[in-house]
Amino acid sequence: DLARYPRTPGEDVALLEAAGAALLYMPDAADMYPPGFSTAVQVAGVSEGLCGSARPGHFDGVATVVAKLLIRILPDAALF
């Protein structure tokens, strides 16, 4: 899924600026998944009945990248 995910950083930046965002953290994939990367978050059962059957591993990928981002920025709050 990662290779097919649409990337529109210029549009993302413009939307954030228009919304009044003061800060953007946008690491590239190589920074998030360096050579030898082997740690992942696995959350069994959560995606069953949702997109899990059609997209195996997708929810684990989302959980992994969200965990990595939260660990890096250590926010006081996260809204999804």
Write up what this structure looks like.
- With 80 residues, this protein is mostly helical.
- 38% of the residues lie in helices and 0% in strands.
- The protein is built from 3 helices and no strands.
- It has helices at residues 9-18, 29-32, 58-73.
- The longest helix is centred in the last third of the chain and has 16 residues, at 58-73.
- It is globular and about 35 Å long.
- The mean pLDDT is 88.
Q: Report the sheet-strand fraction.
A: under 5%
Order of helices and strands: HHH
Tally of DSSP β-strands: 0
Overall mean confidence score, pLDDT: 88
- Give the class from helix and strand content and strand pairing: mainly alpha
The residue fraction in helices comes out at 25-40%
Give me the number of helical elements.
3
- Report the major sheet: none
List the uncertain runs.
none
Span between termini: 21 Å
Radius of gyration: 15 Å
Dominant shape: globular
Quick rundown:
This protein is an all-alpha fold.
